[in-house]
Amino acid sequence: TNECHRYMGKYVVGGASGSINMSASLAPDYIQYNHPGSHYQWVGMLYVDPKTKKGAFYNEDYGFWSRPGVAKIPTSRPLKTNLGGSHWEKRMWSAEGSKVLANTQKYMERGCK
Asked: Both ends of the chain: CA-CA distance in Å?
């Protein structure tokens, strides 16, 4: 999981030093992203307020915000983002999987040190 997380960072929305990637907890067999927006970004579909049908509101003094306590609902509209993208683990495996496997093999050959 350490090796996967290391390579996956550049595919996560916001990049390796972004708040979603930095929120990750690594376990022996999975990586959990604990940022409030991580699932939303991973799915890659716009979620909206069920009443207003808006993804968020904007105020120059405050920034983006949503109605407190209101669970958003998914739409069929893809998110528009220029940072990373959805399903980052699949994109990482397609592009970096051979490196992850080679590095893991070397780690095992060193006696897991």
From this structure: 15
User: Residue 12: phi, psi to the nearest 5?
Assistant: -80, 140
CB 53 within 8 A of CB 76: no
pLDDT of residue 84: 75
pLDDT average, residue stretch 64-78: 91
Let me know: does 65 contact 36? Beta carbons within 8 Å.
no
CA–CA–CA angle 32, 22, 20 (5° rounding): 70
φ/ψ of 101, rounded to 5, equals -65, -40
Residue 18 DSSP label: S
Question: Partners of 30 in the beta sheet?
Answer: 27
Helix (H) or strand (E) run with residue 62 in it: none
Give residue 92's identity as a one-letter amino acid code: M
DSSP state for residue 1 in the 8-state scheme: -
- Find out whether 24 and 49 touch, Cβ atoms under 8 Å: no
Rounded to two decimals, the pTM is 0.78
Provide the 8-state DSSP code for 86: S
